[in-house]
Specification:
Layout (H helix, E strand, L loop, with lengths): L3 H11 L10 H15 L2 E9 L4 E3 L4 E9 L4 E2 L1 E2 L12 E4 L4 E5 L3 E9 L21 H23 L15 H18 L22
Parallel strand pairs: 5-6
Antiparallel strand pairs: 1-8, 2-7, 3-4, 3-8, 6-7
Helix pairs in contact: 1-3, 2-3, 3-4
Length: about 220
């Protein structure tokens, strides 16, 4: 599997440098990984206990729901499409607002399956950190990381050249870096176009054919 050390070397080669910029190298890669998740997310499993409050706050890497399993019952829980307005004894849940799950007449251990953002690079010195992105997405991450790394230079060039004229001016359309970033973003989009966007589906909303817990 791809490690942070390997990905770091690939990106450095992509921008034709020995190392990534200290100022925004890692943050740019993290931004690229977050953007990739909009096309193809990572999969997370959250083991938690639902208490008497009946609600559960999802982890910070949460993106979208997939399903919930009641551990004790060994059953996939149903998903209410909206807030239930009755006292049906269902083994189910609903989400409101995004990232907060509410459980109907249930307490106990659950396994929450969800689509998530990719793990972020916190310690750049941890070269063995696994970067769990699909192999086909590596080139896209290289391109997008390279684009994000150029942003501070655009601001700098725009400020330094604001009193120039013509092709030397600080107007955005006159800054070559803007064209470079647009090129890299376009190349990223072209790279992603070759790979279908992830279909994020909920597990069967009513896997047992009934809403009743004991039916």
């Amino acid at each position: 599997m791809l490690t942070w050390g390997e990905l770091e070397r690939l990106i450095a080669a992509e921008i034709d440098e020995d190392t990534l910029p200290e100022s925004n190298g890692v943050s740019s890669v993290n931004a690229a990984l977050r953007t990739l998740a909009s096309h193809w997310a990572y999969g997370g499993i959250y083991n938690a206990t639902v208490t008497n409050t009946g609600s559960l706050l999802m982890p910070s890497d949460y993106l979208q729901m997939h399903g919930v399993r009641a551990v004790g019952e060994g059953l996939l829980m149903i998903r209410y499409p909206s807030i239930p307005d009755d006292d049906d004894d269902a083994l189910g849940w609903y989400e409101f607002p995004s990232g907060t799950l509410h459980f109907v007449n249930f307490t106990g251990e659950v396994q929450v399956f969800y689509y998530s953002y990719y793990p972020q690079i916190i310690d750049p010195e941890d070269k063995n950190l696994i970067i769990p992105i699909p192999a086909w997405s590596v080139k896209g991450v290289l391109l997008l990381s390279s684009a994000y790394m150029q942003f501070p230079k655009v601001i700098s060039d725009s400020t330094l050249n604001q009193f120039n004229t013509g092709l030397d001016s600080g107007n955005p359309e006159d800054i070559p870096l803007i064209l470079a970033i647009k090129f890299l973003r376009d190349q990223y989009e072209e790279e992603m176009r070759h790979w279908p966007k992830q279909k994020r589906e909920l597990m069967l909303p009513n896997p047992r054919g009934t809403y009743g817990r004991n039916r």
